[in-house]
Design brief:
The chain is α+β, with helices and mostly antiparallel strands. The protein has six helices and nine strands, in the order αβααβββαβαβαβββ. Strands 1-3-2 form a three-stranded antiparallel sheet. β7 and β8 form a beta hairpin. Removes the 2'-phosphate from RNA via an intermediate in which the phosphate is ADP-ribosylated by NAD followed by a presumed transesterification to release the RNA and generate ADP-ribose 1''-2''-cyclic phosphate (APPR>P). May function as an ADP-ribosylase. Belongs to the KptA/TPT1 family.
């Protein structure tokens, strides 16, 4: 499978497993799982056919490990805007986690903190490099340090997805180390 096809499939899967499953007629269970055969059939019926082998390839080579397969089922690892319970246990975060963004978002973040926006959780990275890549998707990246250890001490809940993304409901501005005004 060529890289262009793999990227197109990954985006298709993200859209329909995270955000709009009903658009192609699939219904994830409460944990976000969908039967692979049902997904392939629905995708084919909606003009985007692929094989199980192609699906396995996209899941295996995805650098962000966005999807997980368990037996005959698949789901997105995190990033949902639909209601799902990924069943992730609470976890104790490291003292600092990181969030990649762009400069145009800093005023809102200074005022309101980091909010999940259209997702169920705020996504945080364990290292600056990953946060830099995340921020770079929308322009020149700005990396914010999140005082995750202090948040946890103060009662905020953290979970970590199977692909290493840290999740929490929101990050209040008082727990952020922001760059100064430009």
């Amino acid at each position: 499978m060529d890289e262009t096809r793999a990227v197109k499939m990954s985006k298709y899967l993200s859209k329909h497993l995270r955000h709009q499953p009903r658009l192609i007629g699939i219904a994830p269970d409460p944990g976000g799982w969908v039967e692979i055969e049902a997904l392939i059939n629905a995708a084919t019926a909606n003009g985007f056919g692929f094989t199980r082998e192609e699906l396995d390839h996209v899941v295996a080579v995805n650098d962000k490990r966005r999807f997980e397969i368990e037996g005959t089922r698949i789901r997105a690892s995190q990033g949902h805007s639909i209601e799902v319970d990924l069943g992730l246990p609470q976890a104790v975060p490291p003292p600092y986690l990181y969030h990649g963004t762009v400069a145009r978002n800093l005023n809102a973040i200074r005022a309101e903190g980091i909010r999940p926006m259209d997702r169920n959780d705020v996504h945080l990275s364990a290292d600056r490099q990953t946060a830099t890549r995340v921020g770079a998707r929308r322009g020149r990246p700005v990396v914010l340090a999140v005082e995750a250890g202090a948040m946890h001490h103060d009662g905020y809940v953290f979970r970590v997805s199977s692909n290493g993304v840290w999740l929490t409901g929101a990050v209040p501005p008082g727990y952020l180390r922001l760059p100064g005004p430009r």
